[in-house]
Amino acid sequence: MTIAIVIDLIDCLTNGSVMTARRFADGLRAKGHEVRLVAVGADGENDCNVKERYVPVLTEVSAKNQIKFGKFDEGKIRKAFTGADIVHFIFPFKLEKKCKKLADEMGIPTTAAFHVQPENVSFNVHLGWCKPFNSMIYAYLKHTFYRQFERIHCPTSFIAQQLANHGYKGELYVISNGYDPAFVPPKERPHNKKFEIVMTGRLSPEKNQQVIIRAIAKSKYKDNIHLTLLGNGPLKNKLAELAEKLDADVSFDFLPKEQLIKRLQASDLYVHSATVEIEAIAAIEAIACGLVPVIAESDLSATKQFALGDKSLFKDGDFEQLAERIDYWYEHPDERASMSGRYAVFAKKFSLDNSLSLAEQMFADEICDYSSRKLERKAPALSRFSLFSRS
Fold it and tell me: Glycosyltransferase subfamily 4-like N-terminal domain spans which residues (predicted)?
């Protein structure tokens, strides 16, 4: 297949949706498909690099969360779409809306992914728990974009259920974003001077890393614990100040893939504190490296699906219960070693290869049904002519 993928940006390695698109593009190419990326920063041979679109105020705010907006260029994008079997959309913004209209005009089948969880927006404007506000965003996204698609890629059954609850009518394909196969357990986990806890994720309100810092400060083993927060974001300074205030040993870093794998392999426990999460590939990568996770049990997060027992869950925002979980795994190294193997095996069901196969099926389904729908749209006129002839 020749697959065009539209996403506003492709050159930001700290944005989870961008990394997902890059993995999918590389994986599909490895399977023999021609993939054409339409994005800011697209630099492949058949890609379409678009300019960044400036939106007053919104551009500055979005930049803090590693988002850029692409500018529609009909001439360049039409060329990229020519000969494509299908166009797949990652985001629901202005570039994607205009590209969807162009694809329809060109008679090309389309599918879309749902990656922008409304709560990711609302938590950053201090309205995270306002259900009417979140419902309004779901409705806006449906009305302005997703209602145009027959097939929607949902990274988890959690977000698929959310879309169904909010009246999305397209067929919902639950397909994990898939983790890179390079994430594997170490041959031997090192003996650390301190108990090494790690979390990967954007340093922003909905990720709630402050609860980990507070839990470590509450732990019986506070002096023997070191936390590494891997990621960038607007709350980095506030989190550093909190760690200093509570005298918790915390460091911050952002690592390329090879070093990230080594850091995960060298750690003792993974904590995922996010209140809002469509999937959290970061958590899958950690358990694929054999790390036992402790995950926030939130109604707005799908990540709790990765827990293989109550000891890997804590009530969202409850730093005291998280401290208890940390202490438990600190005190039970043999059980942690046993569960490490179980988690590494469990992670394989979310492999990139499996996700790519499911995505290929979704694309094939849409291509096939698109042709059928074109025939159906012509059918009423033929039927009327036939009835008229018999009268």
Answer: 15-182
Q: Tell me the Cα Rg of the chain.
A: 23
Residue 277 contacts by C-beta under 8 Å, 6 or more apart in sequence?
Answer: 117, 206, 298, 300, 301, 302, 303
What pLDDT shows up at residue 378? Answer: 62
Residues 167 and 52 occupy one common structural domain: yes
Same domain assignment for residues 91 and 71: yes
CA–CA distance, 43 with 41 (Å, rounded to integer) = 6
Identify the domain containing residue 343 by its residue range: 195-349
What is the three-class DSSP state of 344? Answer: helix
Q: Is the dihedral of CA 88, 94, 100, 106 positive or negative?
A: negative
The answer to whether 289 touches 183, Cβ cutoff 8 Å, is: yes
Residue 354 to residue 28: CA distance in whole angstroms: 12
Q: Is residue 316 part of a domain?
A: yes
Can you list the pairs that 56-63 forms with residues at least 24 positions away whose Cβ atoms lie under 8 Å?
none
Tell the residue number behind the tokens 């392999």, with chain if given: 265
Tell me if 353 sits within 8 A of 182, measured CB to CB.
Answer: no
* CATH for 300: 3.40.50.2000
| Cα-Cα end-to-end distance for the chain | 47
Within this chain, do residues 129 and 252 fall inside the same structural domain, yes or no?
no
Q: Which residues of the chain have pLDDT under 70?
A: 64-65, 377-391
Domain total of the chain: 2
286 and 256 both lie in a single domain:
yes
Tokens of 383: 């039927």
- The owner of tokens 């979704």 is 362
Pair 290, 368 in one domain = no
